[in-house]
Description:
By secondary structure, the chain is α+β, with helices and mostly antiparallel strands. The protein has a single domain (3-62), classed as P-loop containing nucleotide triphosphate hydrolases (Rossmann fold, 3-Layer(aba) Sandwich). Helix content is 31%, strand content 10%. A two-stranded parallel sheet has the order 1-2. Strand 1, helix 2 and strand 2 form a beta-alpha-beta unit. It is elongated. The N and C termini lie far apart (52 Å).
Amino acid sequence: MSLYLLFQGNWVFLANCHLSLSWMPQLDKLVEQLQVEEPHPDFRLWLSSSPHPEFPISILQVGIKMTTEPPKVSTTVQLS
């Protein structure tokens, strides 16, 4: 990730991280570095991933987690 993005307050979105497990140790080091350095207050790092047992726990521990679930359809809904 470019240091320019970090210090200019940009947002970065890394999608489908579960598909790049070999790169997760590097991402883990980057996330550690973000805790030591002072990025721009507007900088955001967004990650998306499906659950995977090899995903680094340390990344999950320092982030805010959001989940999505498929909508639940009620059996009492009548179609007209």
